[in-house]
Amino acid sequence: MVGYDPLHIGIIFASAPLVRFAMPFLFLNGFRLDQRIFFLSLILMGIGAIGFYPALGYFWFLLLVNIFFGIGISLVLPYIEVISLEQIGKERYGRIRMFGSLGFIAVSLILVHYLSSPQSGIIFLIAMALITLVFGAFIGIKQNKIPDNECDANDETCRFSIANHIPLWIGFFLMQVSFGPFYNFFTIYATDQGVSLNTTVWLWSFGVIAEIIMFYFQGPLLRGNLPKILQITAFITVFRWLLIAIFPNNTPLLFAAQSLHAFSFALFHSTSIAILFHLYRARRLSQQFFFGISYGLGGFIGAIGAGALYQYAPVFLFVGGAIAALGAGIAFRINAR
């Protein structure tokens, strides 16, 4: 609506995943994601959100503001994830994570009807960011009264290394690469195949409803063999993308494919968080790298790859996603040996 061309939009969208990927590397040598850094990240997130309003019409200013906002988010999320697992345990973690899914539904089904201008969207973003800042500060202040369970970075046993579990991290990366076609092109792909926009919106929401149900009831599953669950979620994701690829205009099968979001996102995400929580003593740093390598680098490569596929071979868009998910499943299987 403002007048940016697709290249500018792509660069702005790509900046946040790249920031999310780069940030954890700053914490490998001495930096710690402690309460002080957490509070600073909340402030940076708030400033970034407010900055969107004056920056909207100026590309480089908007890009800089988006980077600031991305830095704040990339530090807030891992800190909160670790607190959640420490305070409530992996079995009940999904019931907390479920509220993010409810927020997504609120945006996709309700807010979309009120986004009449870019400014109205930015005002909503600012309001939500400031509310998040307030609640985040409350959590941080409360956490100050609880002993810090994060190990000392000077302790040799606390050293974080991806090298010890390379197949696991490759799997995390490929799993998010496989979501590139879905997150970036599903609406365009479905409507190009003759599915109405209204039906497509409900397909998105149905997938989120499926993930909410999984988040709420997944506790008993997370008491089982976590590496095996990772493999299962990856192979279910392969099946999901193939369903969309083979039956792109079959509405009942598209809804069936969306129901699998319960496994390919909800159960996968919770299992990944739980595995890293137990594998590494540097828990916050491991969560930072999970978000950075999977949703950051994986999301970035997935978006670019999906764009290339959709431009030159659109019929193979979700086949490409299925191949990436298959690679993730194989990597998880190798890691479990």
The global form is globular
Determine and state the CATH class of the largest domain.
Mainly Alpha
Instruction: Please estimate the helix content.
Output: over 70%
CATH superfamily of the largest domain: MFS general substrate transporter like domains
Sequence stretches where pLDDT stays below 50 over 5 or more residues:
none
Rg on CA atoms, Å: 20 Å
Tally of distinct domains: 2
* Biggest pleated sheet: none
Describe this structure in words.
- By secondary structure, the chain is an all-alpha fold.
- The protein folds into 2 domains: about 5-150, no CATH class; about 165-335, Growth Hormone, Chain: A (Up-down Bundle).
- Helix content is about 75%, strand content about 0%.
- The chain has 13 helices and no strands.
- It has helices at about 5-20, 35-55, 60-90, 90-110, 120-145, 165-180, 180-190, 195-215, 225-245, 250-260, 260-280, 285-310, 315-335.
- The protein is globular, with a radius of gyration of 20 Å.
- The model has no long low-confidence stretch (mean pLDDT about 90).
Please outline the helices and strands:
Blueprint: H1 6-22, H2 35-55, H3 59-88, H4 90-110, H5 118-143, H6 166-178, H7 180-192, H8 197-217, H9 226-246, H10 251-259, H11 261-279, H12 283-312, H13 317-336
Helix pairs in contact: 1-3, 1-12, 2-3, 2-5, 3-4, 3-12, 4-8, 6-12, 6-13, 7-12, 8-10, 8-11, 9-10, 9-11, 9-13, 11-12
